[in-house]
Amino acid sequence: xxxxxxxxxxxxxxxxxxxxxxxxxxxxxxxxxxxxxxxxxxxxxxxxxxxxxxxxxxxxxxxxxxxxxxxxxxxxxxxxxxxxxxxxxxxxxxxxxxxxxxxxxxxxxxxxxxxxxxxxxxxxxxxxxxxxxxxxxxxxxxxxxxxxxxxxxxxxxxxxxxxxxxxxxxxxxxxxxxxxxxxxxxxxxxxxxxxxxxxx
Length: 200
Known about the structure:
The chain contains eight helices and five strands, in the order E-H-E-H-H-E-H-H-E-H-H-E-H. It has helices at about 15-25, 40-45, 45-70, 85-95, 95-110, 125-135, 145-165, 180-200, and strands at about 1-5, 25-30, 80, 120-125, 170-175. A five-stranded parallel beta sheet has the order 2-3-1-4-5, with helices on both faces.
């Protein structure tokens, strides 16, 4: 089984994915975004580096997922803190219409090369809560992220995961109003209930 946790920057994807993986005795698969040297350049000059950054993430994520699924045993439960389709959401928010059209042409065949998750969990959060969480975790690369950028990403992600309904899998939307141990526990419980229902 393949489960993806998705959401905006600072929505708590990694925290939830790791906690859920422990409860399910599953493999936790984190996104390897730290290795992307274009990301700091994009944050400093998004107009110049938007396309190379988004395209590099597209290739990196496809490579990471392909290598991972080629190496695991059959029957392995995997919980990832990213969904491949996030490439489309971020590109839609950051690229010009011309560049996005080109990007989509490359996205579609690459998507076919990786497994489709049985469940995508989308964390729906306010930009205020995102900002608080980003400040709390204190990643140097994220210190200058603007609220307007988070709002732009939220619109793109919401449109894809909440409104379009074009994803060929089950999508569970969890509304997060605060971060604490109780909320994390309740999220895991709700996800596990959905997993049990899909098995039946």
